[in-house]
């Protein structure tokens, strides 16, 4: 059995957050984080903003002259001002608008939120205001819960309340993309809509593997000769071609693999053209096919991908109004096997010369057959590639 001391109140000092290098603890006031969330934004320098969310107002008094209330809210921080939408004849308006002020440009110690009523005489009537001391504004960093808005009674006014939330946050805040920004206050038109979060997400890259197998019912303009055909495939600015079929035939066969790099979200299309090699300097277009990339299946293993036949948009060779007429009754068919490969490293180099062959998907790794150990005993006559060259003989790496 335990002693009586085991049941007494004890003084504990838990560490609620990251420990800083100088020994302090980062925690409290919206600063408690964890490794998973911190690592999401550690590649981007944090930029701080003062956020003001204007939710709604209630019980606003009507103007004694007009007998109605056309309210809007003005958020003022030093020389920066932001205004909400103005409502007509509404004493309980709802705005739910967010304003963001860059912390680097804050030169005022107070934040003022004015509720005003638009008058017909050209000067807006003052209903009331709420003042915040900048030293008392809390800090909120995701994944902290969003700051709940509160009702504030309007000062110096006849009556009324406004619901607000004020906090200091970073560009990782969920409110950043939708906020009105003081940095863009002087920008008009589409420039305002270009303000987006500065937490950048790397696009997911895929290898698009296109196996061009064969084609059928290929016809050339010259009916007296069979066509000698090749296929050109394009994804964005990437263009690859198959070899020219060595024999002249209406059913050419290639079975060639073409590899492209595609990035999500897939906005580009796979463009396939079947062309006839008329001469060394002339190619004749026989058919064309446009396919969105999202029609191809994604795979992370070696499972088989089913091939499919596609009808090409074919052109007739009779001239009408100086252009080729499109025929849809009869068309050339092409046989393809295509998929999006997600199990490999996608590198910034030519897809024809991939230096890293090991897949990223563990299920694609080959079973090891043994271990080869290599040790460096000595090195002589090494010439530095740069003025500073350090050779680590113990690890076998040079830097």
From TrEMBL:
The lineage of its organism: Eukaryota, Viridiplantae, Streptophyta, Embryophyta, Tracheophyta. This is C2 domain-containing protein. Residues 1-21 have a biased composition (Basic and acidic residues). PANTHER family: FT-INTERACTING PROTEIN 1, PHOSPHORIBOSYLANTHRANILATE TRANSFERASE ISOFORM 1. Residues 31-152, 187-310 form the C2 domain. Residues 1-22 are annotated as: Disordered. Pfam families: C2. SMART domains: C2. It comes from the Eukaryota.
């Amino acid at each position: 059995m335990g002693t009586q001391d085991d049941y007494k109140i004890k003084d504990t000092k838990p560490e609620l957050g990251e420990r800083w290098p100088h020994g302090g603890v980062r925690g409290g006031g919206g600063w408690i984080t964890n490794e998973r969330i911190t690592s999401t934004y550690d590649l981007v320098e944090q930029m701080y903003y003062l956020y003001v969310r204007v939710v709604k107002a209630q019980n606003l008094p009507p103007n004694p002259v007009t007998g109605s209330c056309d309210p809007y809210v003005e958020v003022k921080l030093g020389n920066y001002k932001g205004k909400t939408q103005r409502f007509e004849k509404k004493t309980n308006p709802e705005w739910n608008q967010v304003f963001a002020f860059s912390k680097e440009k804050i030169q005022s110690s107070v934040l003022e939120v004015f509720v005003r009523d638009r008058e017909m005489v050209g000067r807006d009537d003052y209903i009331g205001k709420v003042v915040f001391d900048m030293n008392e504004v809390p800090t909120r960093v995701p994944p902290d819960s969003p700051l709940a808005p509160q009702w504030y009674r309007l000062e110096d006014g006849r009556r009324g309340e406004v619901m607000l939330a004020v906090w200091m946050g970073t560009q990782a805040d969920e409110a950043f993309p939708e906020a009105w920004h003081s940095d863009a206050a002087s920008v008009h038109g589409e420039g305002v809509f270009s303000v987006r979060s500065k937490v950048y997400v790397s696009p997911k890259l895929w290898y698009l593997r296109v196996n061009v197998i064969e084609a059928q019912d290929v016809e050339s303009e010259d009916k007296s000769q069979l066509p000698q055909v090749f296929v050109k495939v394009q994804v964005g600015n990437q263009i690859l071609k198959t070899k020219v079929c060595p024999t002249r035939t209406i059913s050419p066969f290639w079975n060639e693999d073409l590899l492209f790099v595609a990035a999500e979200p897939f906005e580009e299309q796979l463009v396939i053209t079947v062309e006839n090699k008329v001469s060394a300097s002339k190619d004749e277009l026989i058919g064309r096919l446009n396919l969105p990339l999202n029609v191809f299946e994604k795979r992370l293993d070696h499972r088989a991908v089913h091939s499919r036949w596609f009808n090409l948009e074919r052109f007739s060779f009779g001239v009408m109004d100086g252009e080729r007429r499109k025929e849809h009754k009869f068309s050339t068919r092409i046989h393809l096997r295509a998929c999006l490969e997600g199990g490999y490293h996608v590198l910034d180099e030519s897809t024809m010369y991939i230096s890293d062959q090991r897949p990223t998907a563990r299920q694609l790794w080959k079973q090891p057959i043994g271990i080869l150990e290599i040790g460096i005993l000595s090195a002589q006559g090494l010439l530095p590639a740069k003025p500073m060259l350090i050779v680590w003989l113990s690890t076998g790496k040079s830097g």
